[in-house]
Amino acid sequence: MDKKCQYSQLIKAEANRLGFLSCGISKAEFLEEEAPRLEEYLKKQRHGKMSFLENYFDKRLDPTKLVEGSKSVISLLLNYYPEETQREDTYKISKYAYGTDYHFVIKDKLKSLLEFIQQEIGEVEGRAFVDSAPVMDKAWAAKAGLGWVGKHTLLLSKQKGSFFFVAELIVDLELEYDTPVTDHCGSCTACIDACPTNAIVEPYKVDGSKCISYFTIELKDELPQEMKGKFEDWAFGCDICQDVCPWNRFSKPHNEPLFNPHPELLSMSKKDWEEITEETFRKVFKKSAVKRTKYSGLTRNISFLKEE
User: Fold this and answer.
1) Residue 115 CA to chain centroid, in angstroms?
2) What SS3 state is found at 23?
3) Which residues are annotated as a binding site for cob(II)alamin?
4) Which residues bind [4Fe-4S] cluster 1 (predicted)?
5) Which of 81, 128, 221, 242 has the fewest Cβ atoms within 10 Å of its own Cβ atom?
């Protein structure tokens, strides 16, 4: 077995030990297919007020501009599918935000993986990325064979569905590269049909500025009146396109204790949400991604839903 193959197996075994769902590796190079798509997305203003997406266009498409001398992109998936979900008759938050903010959880695991690589293989330079830099996570994961990008533009796996986080280690080490898998969406349009705000403008194209997640998390202004009655009780994020996807029948609960929800969260009723105080907000969402929208943002979203 050659060194590249040996190192790749070693890295995948350690990723598995650290609790990652899957690990795939691709060559660090310019993302040719993604360039025109990203250009169109920005030109058509589908990023709404998320102006940060306009920055670092070149770095977003070329990891060698992001990490000097990089040779490989190690893509990793971490499951967040919960054992239990919120009660039926309540305001909903995205399942990914039930527990501790994923940025912290994954960063620690990636750090451990990089340290392992350096100990076992030698001098390897690299950087860890969790949704926090101009890296096209889904494109890299698809290149590394971890799934295909579905019609809702999320990464999908036949065996694992889509309720997982995607992260990367970009390293200056040559490894054995995986190959992409085929698309298995077929003629299914479940996600497109179910989206209440018509954010999936055509198969494989999403207008981010129409997405419930955009409105409830990213948009800092007042929520647009024409969206009244379309949020289907989502107060932070939205899982509709994932919930209806047939491949998510195969989702299995995660085994990451840090992703377990605060005990109060699952039983909160609409009345509890409507009366939430800043103190309760701080207690229930102490380490959660929900903090991104702040107490003022969450109460804005709930008032908007309450009037529906």
Assistant:
1) 24
2) strand
3) 60, 131, 155, 213, 238-239
4) 185, 188, 191, 245
5) 221
Domain membership flag for residue 126: yes
Q: Which domain holds residue 16?
A: 3-85+99-171
Supply the angle between the helices 102-121 and 3-17 in degrees, to the nearest 10: 140
How many CA atoms, within 13 angstroms, populate the side-chain half-sphere of residue 247?
26
Q: What are the distances in angstroms from CA 214 to CA 31, 179, 207, 211? A: 25, 32, 10, 5
Here the tokens at position 136 are 């096209």
**Of 227, 218, 233, 221, whose CA–CA distance to 306 is shortest?**
233
Pairing of strands 200-202, 205-206: antiparallel
Cα 178–chain centre separation: 21
Count how many domains the chain has: 1
Residue in the block written with tokens 């939205």: 238
> What number of residues does the chain have?
308
Alpha-carbon distance 210 to 164, whole Å? 23
Q: 178 in a domain, yes or no?
A: no
**Given 62, 131, 178, 207, the catalytic residue:** 131
Q: Where are the extended beta strands (E) located within 217-284?
A: 234-236
Four-residue CA torsion sign, 52, 55, 60, 64: negative
Residue 166 lies in a domain: yes
Is 217 contained in some domain? no
Residue list for the binding site for [4Fe-4S] cluster: 185, 188, 191, 195, 211, 238, 241, 245
Check if 131 is active-site. yes
